[in-house]
Design brief:
single chain, alpha+beta, Cytochrome Bc1 Complex, Chain A, domain 1, 2 domains, six-stranded mixed sheet, five-stranded mixed sheet, globular
Amino acid sequence: MGLCHAPLAISAERTELDHWSLENGAKCVIAPIPDAPLTCVDFWCRAGSAVERPGEEGLAHFLEHMVFKGSSTLDAGEFDLRIEALGGSSNAATGFDDVHFYVLVPPKEVKAALELLLNLVITPKIDKQAYSLEREVVLEEIAQYNDQPDEQVFQKLLEKCWPKHPYGRSILGKEESLRKSNPCDMKAFHQRHYMANNCCLVISGVIPKGIEEIVSNSLLTGLENSSKEESTPPKDPSLVFYKGREEVFFNRLESSRLLMAWQLPPANNQRMLMGADLATSLLSEGRRSRLVQQLRENLQIVESIDMDLTVLEEGSLVMLEACCGENNLEKVEQEVHKILKDMSHVSSLEKELERAARLVENGLCFNLEAASQVSGLAGSQSLWGRDQPLLEPLRHIKYWDSVHLKEEVFNLLQPEQSFTLLARPLKAS
């Protein structure tokens, strides 16, 4: 880890994760961080939007809202008040693959916080009146999302790449499906997915004594197991990526956009994804990167240009976005194509690769400074069967040299292998 900032690297290396499973199959991870001011209790579940069945679009995210509206023993709002009384805070997030709920509390309050969190998540009330009221909040969130041109451009790209898969639709769901839904539908969704073998509990920070006994006597042990058939939604057997090119006009879009996307292997192929991370850093991170230096610094034809790697359990995505004036859009596309073509046969990348490796290593280390960040990485990895040290992904950097990067990554990140979306502002008539 010589390329990481020393204190961060040492901290992450010394955080030895303790993995175990309860008798019902629920996974548990302990991540000791002796000097952390707060301890994070983080509950993860394989219940993201990708498991929604036809007609359920949006239930995963809506359920995240409803969980905080009361449980078998907690009134609406009581959970937040009691967590705050412990000196803590709470939050939650729903993704394509999973959802998680977490609290940050002083170490001495971990047991009380764990009891409150599990009660809230495992036994939500899903009251009829609260359901109707909160549905309007979620529908307003969808309306606001649909009113943001930048979000719509991104969503259009996903729809074009994955038109037949849940990854191609918004996590927020469909207004029509949510209006037709009822509390019984949500309870059925919860019962189907919030099962022991779909869940993982992570506790990171200062760990109280006897934590395994505390967890073993918690509500987590009462969760039932499920068969794979019960929790798997009917859908296409594989994630199909569609290549192509399309121009779309958007209301109130401030700048024209060039967007390109390439499909990569799923999250468990960590070596390939590390190569993609290095490639995107080499191309677009910092003024010395190839795309930024040529298009923004030298030619000055873009306002911004960057590439991101989105890692998902069924298939990942590299996305490029360049913002520019409408009169420069074709020129930007030509230059991007030229640089990508050059990358597949450039003679040597060692100096640039060394810089990219530093950026990737520093990025991972910086993302493991807080207890909540550690629990986030450990929880998502363990939930999907990757019980490994926090810095394990960095081991794959050693594999990537100029030859491997050109042959395995840059030969993939070519224009003809992408879906390209040209987003233009819609001019008022």
